[in-house]
Amino acid sequence: MSRSLATERVWDELDDAFFGVLAFVNRHGHPRTTGVCYAVDARSLYISTAKGMWKVRHISANPNVSMTVTMPKRVPFLPFIKVPAATITFKGEAQILEVADIPAHVFSRLGRGKETDPAVLEETAIIRVVPRGEFVTYGIGMPITQMRKHEEAHGRAPTGTEHVVL
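RE: above sequence
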């Protein structure tokens, strides 16, 4: 049985991280994944990419996605000991947006504060992902020593996005 987690705890973990794996299907229904950097704002994840990328075409055709975010775990002072990463996985709905459609502070976070050439902005698309249902977690909010206990390491939390519209 999975343990219950607070929704805000999971959102805080997502906000602290910035890299995840986005999964979707292509036009033939075959699964595809891609590593992405993201920023969190108002219970949505925002991803910057080029308009011509295949993920933009596939998500435009089918907005149902899944995402897994990993949080590395380490044993203090013993970095050579391998420990599985903590994870947050969820299904969601995605939407393709223009840079002008998102708040400026979100785009700044996506660019990690770097200045962006206006010509690049013209070719940039934003993928907004709204998680739906539940977060499924492993190792979130617990010490490394407890992660070996399978039942305690797995958790669930509602996404809290039932009122967030695309």
